[in-house]
Amino acid sequence: MAETSNTQHVLKSQANWDALYFYQKSDVIYQLAFAFCERFIHLYKDRTRDQVIQAARSCKQNIVEGLADGVASTEMQLKLLNVARASLKELREDFEDYIKSRHLQFFVSGEPRYADMLNYCRYHNRLSDYEPFFAQWTDEQMCNYAITLCHFIDRMMMSFLKKLEQEFITEGGIKERMHRARTGYRQQQDERLKQLEAELPRLKQALAEAQAEAAKWKAAFEDLKQRALKMYYEKEEEIKRLKELLGEENL
């Protein structure tokens, strides 16, 4: 039976994470963190290097995994996206600690460089917008841009999580969707059964009328057949008599 417009779906649509700004920025922050570590954190002497890279990677990868799992489980999606936020906060803390421990400067409100940085991070999301600067910025600049990106990503993710939370409250998780889908399917079958049962007496009456009509036509056919046969035999007998009569006259 064809799927009706009110059919409930168990699986949700796959989110295109590459189109989400917070994912795009998370890709930037991972690549920025990697470039930062390559330039400013010693490969063997500072364990912070691995922690920074792994925190940035965890943020990006958990966004991808969370959005992918959201096809089946909103609950799992919420958990993984919150793991991504936790990794992001860890990463931001590492960049802030780097500035503090090296006695560098935080860019603060009121400074031209702060306003420029804020506007750039707000309106630029793709890696290609930032990558040319990775080899040019100082460690102070990279840290400040990274911290600002972390703030933007966190705010965007919180808005997204609130939306998911509302969906979860109103629609439930996969168990609720499975129940609604199954219940909806059963309701459709019940409605179809009632419709067929309601149509059955009418169809039965139509069948009886058709059978009566067929019987009438059958009787008419039989009558016509018998009259035709009678006429045929009568004509055949007349032809036979005429032939016999003509034969006697010829003698």
UniProtKB/TrEMBL annotation:
Record flagged with keyword Coiled coil: yes
Keyword Coiled coil: yes
Parts forming coiled coils: 186-245
SUPFAM superfamilies reported in the protein's UniProt record: IVS-encoded protein-like
UniProt superkingdom: Bacteria
Keywords: Coiled coil
Record-linked NCBIfam families: 4helix_suffix, four helix bundle protein
Name of the protein in question: Four helix bundle protein
Organism expressing this protein natively: Leyella stercorea DSM 18206
